[in-house]
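Why should sequence recovery work at all? Because a backbone constrains its sequence more than one might expect. Tight turns favour small or flexible residues, buried strands favour hydrophobic ones, and helices have their own preferences. The token representation captures these environments compactly. In the example below, the structure is given first.
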């Protein structure tokens, strides 16, 4: 029987600030059965999709992205916060609730026309994923889909990604913030 992945995700109220329910996946990653099932369920829809690269968003997207890449026989490419990648980068600023943030990817990380799967642990407003899609389009990647463990549908991120014409899915949904 399939594991109830919700049982492995810990909720920390008021972190990192009051009113936020932080969905902590470190407890899921530490449980081999649950981690394995998460990777299997995220990979399964893309087994025949001819994915060349799995692109993971810093930092929790690296953990699941690396494992999905191995499962799919694909390479792994990181999208990082500004200033962390050593070679030439493309960069994209995006809006946060207060202020802005910038993410970057190596300019030569992906061959133009390659099929890529974008992954992160959680989608909230979709700002980070939308900025990642913009980076991927600038290097002419062919985005197969975006996949997440958790969606917070009340924050509208998934709808935003679909408006960008990217197929998007998540294993779990949590109401609220
Ligand atoms: P967003 O750009 O609003 O979709 O936020 C997504 C990013 O912020 C992801 O990398 C998440 O890991 C992190 N994040 C946002 N909200 C939460 C939350 N409630 N619990 C855990 N991580 C979150």
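From this structural description, the recovered sequence reads:
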């Amino acid at each position: 029987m399939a594991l109830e992945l919700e049982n492995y995700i810990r909720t920390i109220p008021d972190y990192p600030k009051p009113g936020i329910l932080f969905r902590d996946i470190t407890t899921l990653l530490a449980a081999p059965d649950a981690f394995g099932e998460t990777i299997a369920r995220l990979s399964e829809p893309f087994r025949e999709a001819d994915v060349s690269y799995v692109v993971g968003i810093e930092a929790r997207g690296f953990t699941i992205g690396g494992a999905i890449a191995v499962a799919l026989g694909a390479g792994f490419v990181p999208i990082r916060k500004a200033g962390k990648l050593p070679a030439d980068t493309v960069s994209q600023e995006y809006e946060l609730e207060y202020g802005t943030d910038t993410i970057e990817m190596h300019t030569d990380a992906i061959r133009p026309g390659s099929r890529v799967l974008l992954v992160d642990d959680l989608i909230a407003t979709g700002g980070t994923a939308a900025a990642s899609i913009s980076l991927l389009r600038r290097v002419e990647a062919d985005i197969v889909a975006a996949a997440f463990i958790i969606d917070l549908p009340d924050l509208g991120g998934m709808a935003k990604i679909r408006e960008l014409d990217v197929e998007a899915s998540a294993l779990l949904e949590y109401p609220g913030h």
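A few observations help interpret the result. DSSP finds five helices and nine strands in the chain.
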